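Sanity check

After download, print the first record. It should look like this:
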Amino acid sequence: MQPLDSTATQLRVNTLRLRADFEQLSKIGAHTTHNSTPPAINRLALSPEDLRARAWFAERVEEAGILVRDDDAGNLSGFLPSEKKGAQTLLVGSHLDSIPDGGRYIGTVGVLAALECARTIHEAAVKLPFDLEVMDFTDGEGCWQSLFGALGVAGLLQPIHINDVHNDNAPFRAALVRAGINPNDVYNSKRHPSTLLGYLELHIEQSYRLEQSGVSIGIVEAIVGRSTYHVNFFGQAAHAGTTNMSLGARKDALQGASAFITRAHEFVRANYDEGTLNFGDITVQPGKFNMIPARCKLTMECRHTSEDMLAEMEAAILALGQECAEIFDLTMQPTRLIHMPAAVMAQPFVEAAERACEIVGVSHMRLSSFAGHEAQIMSTITPCGMIFIPSVGGISHNPQEFSRWEDVIDGANTLLHTILALAE
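Expected structure tokens:
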């Protein structure tokens, strides 16, 4: 193998091979839904389709002369060792599983580009001072437990992530066992931070900032913090026809919850440019035509790029909820389910990606990610970096999700030279 020199700047990924990989993998789990073109992808984590994709990935890794590995959380990887004794490991990758009726690009581009980078480096006999490991993380999309594989590697898995999780009444533990994963051993997937150099992830942007700006590459500076809640409003059931419409006569949980949703959206829109709010589900009880709702349960998600601003925004939103409850003579009970802190990407990784863009000759800009990623979890134990490519129309989690192939190639080459920049 040769040490890094000026010829390394001339390296580029094999575009035909990467495209062939993408087209082959896109057939696994593909099906037509509502006349969708292209077909939707169904590779739900640990499903037969997901396991077929993982087997396909392992074959490609082995064909490249790279070591195939897996861990006790089901994470699958290709390992390219350094000649340096006791070298740290740079993890690069994403996930191959999908949401129901998902798109072809999300997660997949990151894994396949990482594999192509490893093949390019291996074939060019480039000598890296660190081990390079291409990761396909288990359940990145959350069919069972969102970012499950990354949680395992970061040492953040808890029994609640397994024992209390069901999908269509099927227990997660049983799905793990069917996939050959022992639920009691998943905690052994933890990596010690001292063994890691860092983690890199290439991903579609899932937004429209790059496309609208005419910029080829986004270099992520931070990933938003995220909190999820169940918010319950409790009122009093009564006959809808015989109870007077005056405010004092009715304790309508749905009316109070509706007012809260409207006011909360207006508040965030007016005060937090970097914040987002979503109410994804409403459950009303008793749920009858002629009954005033006694209970209304909301799912609420808050996101912000700043951890301090996220905490401030959450507190203000919950205060609005209490105000609405008082106005409609209700009680409000919020329960926070998940809090994922905002993650700042490591400056050396950001700068390495910028140097890579200069070598590849592509335009770039710094930005924040408003979606969660494996890098957000991995940043709790090791330095991380993320690279975005444009998403046409900002569409993701949809069969219409699309990135131009030239952008995929630019992203893969930027990832390649970010890896090489970190080796300098």
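If your output differs, re-run the checksum step. Summary of this record's structure: The chain has a mean pLDDT of 95.
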